Amino acid sequence: MKRKNEDIKEDFVQNAVIKWLSKNDWRIMSLATLGEKGVDIKARHNKYSRYYLIEAKGAKNNSSEEVAFIYSLGQIITRMNTSGKTRYYYGLALPAGSAIKAIRRVPFQIAKKLLLHIFSVDKKGNVIRYMPKDLEKLQKK
After folding, report:
1. pLDDT (tens digit, 9 = 90+) per residue, 101-131?
2. pLDDT at 49
3. What is the pLDDT of residue 86?
4. Mean pLDDT for back-to-back runs of 10 residues, the chain (141 residues)
5. Residues 137, 52: Cα–Cα separation, whole Å
6. Which long-range contacts (CB under 8 A, 24 or more apart) does 15-20 make?
7. I need a surface site. Which of 76, 102, 108, 136 has the fewest CB within 10 A?
8. Four-CA torsion 29, 81, 65, 126, nearest 10 degrees
9. CB of 102 within 8 A of CB of 111?
10. Phi, then psi, of 124 in degrees rounded to 5
């Protein structure tokens, strides 16, 4: 994981994750526009009754990477759905620099309990999804 000074807008992060989801058997159900309340991306798996609720953030520089991570974490936690039998996965879609902070600071045990995944988006739009088992491996290094 290389750390790079980021300047990535939220809509770029959101679009990159939408492309990744579409390529990986997820159907986009709803998108929030900038400034709209609610989760940024809601997707449903094409084969299973599972949903992703994803909060996306951009970052302009190293100091805003921290803000993007903390703000997105607070937003996704307050939007977690605990009712019903539907299985929800949650995601933080962040520029690579913010994602590195999230990977280091969100304990894998918490990510596992909350079904929280981290999507790292680089300047080229490449997306890497880090699941709790990935966080565990990276945090034990």
Report:
1. 999 999 999 999 999 999 999 999 999 999 9
2. 85
3. 79
4. 63 96 96 80 92 91 76 86 80 94 94 95 97 95 73
5. 23
6. 15/125, 16/93, 16/121, 16/125, 16/126, 16/127, 17/41, 17/54, 17/56, 17/91, 17/93, 17/119, 17/121, 17/127, 19/125, 19/127, 20/119, 20/127, 20/129
7. 136
8. -40
9. no
10. -90, -5
Whether the CB-CB separation of 135 and 111 falls below 8 Å is answered with yes
Amino acid at 33: T
Q: Which class in CATH covers the domain with range 10-106+115-139?
A: alpha beta
Placement of tokens 């770029």 in the chain: 12
